[in-house]
Task: structure prediction
Amino acid sequence: MGRRDPGRHSGTPERVTEHPDLAALQRRLAEFAAARNWQPYHTPKNLVAALSVEASELVEIFQWLTPEESARVMDDPGTAHRVSDEVADVLAYLLQFCEVLGIDPLAALAAKIDRNEQRFPVPGTGDGHQQADS
Result:
């Protein structure tokens, strides 16, 4: 997966030199919800439904683009802003979902990568099975 320079176009927020850690972001999200008395609504079912809706809103931006247009989506400031906002929404709901269920998202990802490396070895080092895992 290629990496883009986040400061390359004007569609994203200003470059931040220090990123808050995941735990700090989860605390901010929890404090935000608590201040508004939203905790009763933040059940796993509701959070995963909201996550799905936000992911669908991200898909909607790309729905009718050609592969070439989708690769250049961040070149348009207005569209780049929409993509960034939807990515933030998806991540916010995912982090809240993980918090409610007691899942460490980084540990879960690391474990999944480990399993995939075993299941899908590099060609020439194993059975050569190359199907991506979802």
